[in-house]
Design goal:
The chain is α/β, with parallel strands linked by helices. It has a single domain, classed as Rossmann fold. It is built from 4 helices and 7 strands, in the order E-H-E-H-E-E-H-H-E-E-E. The structure holds adenosine-5'-diphosphate and magnesium ion. The site of magnesium ion has 5 residues, from helix 2.
Length: about 140
């Protein structure tokens, strides 16, 4: 299913549908150019999953942890600024990726060798009319 999104407002509905499509997957990769809307979508997915408190992009760190109202952790990664995959190793990425908690990952292209088998990918593309085309790639 390809969701065509004209505004941020429409994203709330889409995030519910995406969570359904994500199903039992916990490691969710988000691909799309700078400004495509990865961070914005992750915020809404986290809201839908019951995160309390703010969800800011990990600007000064690689990973942010959010807590849901059930007390579950959700991890939000942004690998944009890393230069080598070894930086993810130093971070202890495995503890997160294999924790069974949701991991939402921006710029997974930066860690091609560290992506687990059981990951699912969301792509965000802009069309000529400035709509976002959002779809899941298995
Ligand atoms: N679905 C959308 N419709 C309209 N504007 C959006 C949408 N998603 C994101 N934006 C806007 O695009 C800009 C970049 O979004 P952001 O989520 O930071 O992108 P990324 O994380 O992919 O670099 C923000 O100003 C945001 O408000
Ligand atoms: Mg971002």
């Amino acid at each position: 299913m390809i969701y065509k999104v004209a505004s941020e407002k429409e994203l709330a509905t889409i995030s519910k549908l995406l969570i359904k499509e994500i199903g039992i997957y916990k490691v969710v990769l988000l691909e799309g150019e700078m400004g495509a809307g990865k961070t914005t979508l992750i915020k809404l997915l986290c809201n839908y999953l019951g995160v309390i408190g703010p969800t800011n992009s990990p600007t000064f760190s690689i990973v942010n942890e959010y807590l849901t109202q059930n007390g579950d952790s959700i991890y939000h990664f942004d690998f944009y600024r890393i230069e080598k995959e070894s930086e993810a190793l130093d971070l202890g990425y495995e503890d997160y990726f294999y924790s069974g908690n949701y991991c939402f990952i921006e710029w997974p292209e930066k860690i091609p060798h560290l992506i687990p088998e059981n990951a699912i990918k969301i792509k965000i593309e802009l069309d000529n009319d400035n709509n976002r085309l959002i779809y899941i790639v298995r």
